[in-house]
Write a structure and sequence with these properties.
Layout (H helix, E strand, L loop, with lengths): L2 E13 L5 E9 L2 E7 L1 H4 L3 E8 L7 H9 L5 E7 L12 E2 L9 E7 L2 E5 L1 H5 L36 E4 L2 E13 L4 E5 L9 E6 L7
Antiparallel strand pairs: 1-2, 1-12, 2-11, 3-4, 3-6, 4-5, 7-10, 7-12, 8-9, 10-11
Length: 211
């Protein structure tokens, strides 16, 4: 199971041996700790629960405190479940680090996009604006939404103004340029969804030549 949770630290650039500039996103990936192993017999399905990033004990509620203390694990801020591949086995307390990943491989990275708040239809959906000449009453408006006689209503899902961003986005086939094991860092070519400090899920690309 080549999957790990990480925190987006920001973007920078590095230089290759031939002097080319490569824009990269810096991700603090792991270490993840196995906090629970679920089976069909005990939970009804097979899964492995991982915890990422230590949390202060006073910020963890009583049920989660009991969950961590039962296995003598430091409380974690973020928990996630992944389905293990056939033949894989995990033990509570086991750690997953960036050492599991190889440089040059392709990655699929999932994160939450930046929230833009309420936006108009032009920015949100890329609609064209109206004439900007003097006297024009249709500049950045949504325009006609429905016919008068039929259907005499607005269809559901009609593109218009509204909340934009804050959605789960997956960017596929990003190259893993460099792994810095002693600092738990990954340098990934290109942009990754989300704000600085946002949590992302990193896994080997499902579709890619260098899987």
């Amino acid at each position: 199971m080549k999957t790990i949770l990480g925190k987006k630290m920001g973007m920078t650039q590095i230089f290759t041996e031939n002097g080319a500039v490569v824009p990269v996103t810096v991700i603090q990936a792991g270490p993840m700790t196995v906090t629970q192993v679920k089976t069909v017999e005990t939970d009804g399905y097979d899964a492995v629960q991982f915890g990422f990033e230590d949390a202060k004990p006073q910020r963890v509620n009583k049920p989660m405190t009991g969950h961590f203390s039962k296995n003598d694990i430091t409380p974690k801020k973020h928990l996630a479940e992944f389905k293990p591949e056939e033949g894989e086995t995990f033990e509570v307390g086991q750690q997953i680090t960036v050492a599991e990943f190889e440089e040059g491989k392709k990655l699929d990275i999932t994160g939450t996009s930046k929230g833009k708040g309420t936006q108009g239809n032009i920015k949100r959906h890329g609609h064209h604006r109206g004439p900007m000449t003097h006297g024009s009453k249709h500049k950045r408006l949504a325009g006609a939404l429905a016919a008068g006689t039929y259907p005499s209503r607005v269809f559901k899902g009609n593109a218009g103004p509204g909340r934009m961003g804050r959605e789960t986005i997956t960017v596929q086939n990003l190259e893993l340029v460099k792994v810095i094991e002693d600092k738990n860092l990954m340098l990934v070519k290109g942009a990754v969804p989300g704000n600085k400090g946002g949590i992302v899920r990193i896994q080997y690309a499902v579709k890619g030549e260098d899987k």
